[in-house]
From TrEMBL:
<feature type="transmembrane region" description="Helical">
    <location>
        <begin position="154"/>
        <end position="175"/>
    </location>
</feature>
<dbReference type="Pfam" id="PF13515">
    <property type="entry name" value="FUSC_2"/>
</dbReference>
<keyword id="KW-0472">Membrane</keyword>
<feature type="transmembrane region" description="Helical">
    <location>
        <begin position="304"/>
        <end position="320"/>
    </location>
</feature>
<keyword id="KW-1133">Transmembrane helix</keyword>
<protein>
    <submittedName>
        <fullName>FUSC family protein</fullName>
    </submittedName>
</protein>
<feature type="transmembrane region" description="Helical">
    <location>
        <begin position="104"/>
        <end position="124"/>
    </location>
</feature>
<dbReference type="InterPro" id="IPR049453">
    <property type="entry name" value="Memb_transporter_dom"/>
</dbReference>
<feature type="domain" description="Integral membrane bound transporter">
    <location>
        <begin position="220"/>
        <end position="344"/>
    </location>
</feature>
<keyword id="KW-0812">Transmembrane</keyword>
<feature type="transmembrane region" description="Helical">
    <location>
        <begin position="30"/>
        <end position="47"/>
    </location>
</feature>
<feature type="transmembrane region" description="Helical">
    <location>
        <begin position="131"/>
        <end position="148"/>
    </location>
</feature>
<feature type="transmembrane region" description="Helical">
    <location>
        <begin position="76"/>
        <end position="98"/>
    </location>
</feature>
<feature type="transmembrane region" description="Helical">
    <location>
        <begin position="332"/>
        <end position="353"/>
    </location>
</feature>
<feature type="transmembrane region" description="Helical">
    <location>
        <begin position="206"/>
        <end position="227"/>
    </location>
</feature>
Amino acid sequence: MNPDGPGRPDVAGAAGRPSLDRLGALDIEVAVRAAIAATVPLGILVAAGRPEWAAYAAFGAMTALFGRNEPYRLRLRTVTVAAVLLLASIGAGALLAVTAASDAVVGVVLGVLIVVGVLVVNVARLAPPTVLFFVFALLVCASAPTPSDELAPRLGVALASAGFAWLLSLSGSVLRRMAGPRGARLLRELEREAPVRRAAATDRAVWANAIEQVVAALAAGAVAVAFGLGHPYWAVVSVVAVIPPAGAARTLSRAWHRVLGTAGGVLVAAAVLWPDPPAWLLVVLIGLAQFGAEVLVGRHYGSALLCITPLALMVVHLSAPVDVGTLVVDRLVETALGCAIAMLAVLIGRAAAARGRTGILA
């Protein structure tokens, strides 16, 4: 579920053979980390008889999706900031669930999270540069029935999962030292440098992007709730996944990729979930889907959604099993709704930019 772009391939070796990097060495490394980060805590929960806490573990594990090709000094900052934001989002969502907050209160918290998230992502230069994961964590946790006496253990699961993913994200530094100079040539060079950009906090384009996402996300959520759709957060998540970050090209291709990729991914999810596989098998399949998503996402977003969609549906189903037909239809309909609203926002922003303005604030 990572919209980060593909890395730059290295040149072939001196003998003319393609280096392992050209075959995706870094993608494999990141994919293995992400799959382990997801499956280990989920496996522990299933073994402990607590699959209903799966979402908390899964969102904490998303810490491993950040800083994929960064030097470890920089990655330490990236994954720490990402873990804090993820845990804050999970905690806010859980508190909303415990207090049975109204849709209006959830909307206010969502708006604040998007604005804060966009600012932090741009100032700290997080990669991937999106608030998608934080919004997803907030809304799923807010929608999960949560007894007050389970608040602490659920948050403890999220904290432990995020801590495990944090360690995994930084573990490559040990691997590279153990490999030595010869073995290090098999591992991709870590190239990304992204110093903190404090000026982003007052950048008009960043604020415009934040408000654009807030308006579109709240609109998508309101429409989904008004029509009584079962999982309105998917409409909201689609909005923040499709609207480009500040400074990026304002194209509609990502929306089409998301709709078409989700349609294919829904078919995959239906084929997996309708036979009602045991929980342990779902955990294995979640790990495989996470691996596939990280390998594909930098190459083609639509293809990655063939893994991302069943991954999300399997985690939701593991946490709170529902009728599979309803689950997949809700995902498809709400994704289309969110993408349509995001496309409208992109077109409005493009028109404003064509008149010499920045975003929707001008």
